[in-house]
Design goal:
Layout: H1 3-16, H2 29-39, H3 44-57, H4 61-76, H5 82-100, H6 108-112, H7 119-129, H8 139-148, H9 156-166, H10 172-185
């Protein structure tokens, strides 16, 4: 895919959704961190249901530590891998208090040192909480990038690096959200909704679906 076509794709995304953001509900960087950790192998809807009950009770590292492991589990038990996530969240809270004065760091290395936080989660925090032009590649972005031809790669890191290199500067901050939303609601895994796609004429996918 050439740069002109790629630029037009992002221009169209920007016209229909100029201020995209995550569908996870949060009000502080810490709430976002917890929500993103919980979202691994879980839906945003499911996470939002859990945090709607958790955050009014505990939305700081100190408050979550006060809940304890069993107390935290009682709020997140509907989410996959909740046992492991509870342990990671409590360990993260301790590190935030001990090493970062209870605040979420805006540094990749420090974020990735937190239990349960990998590169993708760090990218989400840096982008959404701190305004960095990072691109967190999940299954939706990996699929959309390869299927459309925007940024092909054999693994998520390869796709991330190509997106960062090839996405026009003015679109980098929002690219992550546009691509996730496009993959979630239009360019779906099993059957992409090509007839309703605003970039169908620019997309290089050979197996486009037809209108019923």
């Amino acid at each position: 895919m050439n740069a002109t076509k790629r630029g037009e794709i992002f221009s169209r995304f920007a016209r229909i959704n100029p201020t995209p953001t995550t569908e996870l509900n949060f009000t502080t960087p810490f709430e976002l961190l917890i929500a993103v950790v919980l979202s691994a192998q879980a839906t945003d809807v499911g996470v939002n249901k859990a945090t709607a009950k958790l955050f009014p009770k505990a939305n700081t590292p100190e408050a979550i530590l006060t809940l304890g492991e069993e107390g935290l589990k009682s709020y997140i038990k509907t989410i996959g891998l909740f046992n492991t996530k509870a342990k990671n969240i409590l360990a993260t809270c301790r590190l935030l208090i001990d090493q970062h004065a209870g605040e979420v760091p805006c540094d990749r290395t420090a974020l990735e040192a937190l239990p349960g936080v990998g590169r993708k989660t760090a990218n989400v925090i840096l982008n959404t909480a701190f305004g960095e032009p990072t691109i967190a590649v999940d299954t939706h972005i990996f699929r959309v990038s390869n299927r459309t031809g925007i940024a092909k790669g054999k693994n998520v890191l390869e796709v991330e690096r190509r997106l960062e290199r090839m996405t026009p500067t003015e679109f980098k901050h929002n690219a992550h959200h546009w691509l996730i939303l496009h993959g979630r609601y239009v360019c779906k895994a099993r059957k992409p909704n090509c007839p309703e796609c605003i970039i169908a004429d620019l997309c290089e996918f050979r197996g486009k679906t037809q209108a019923a």
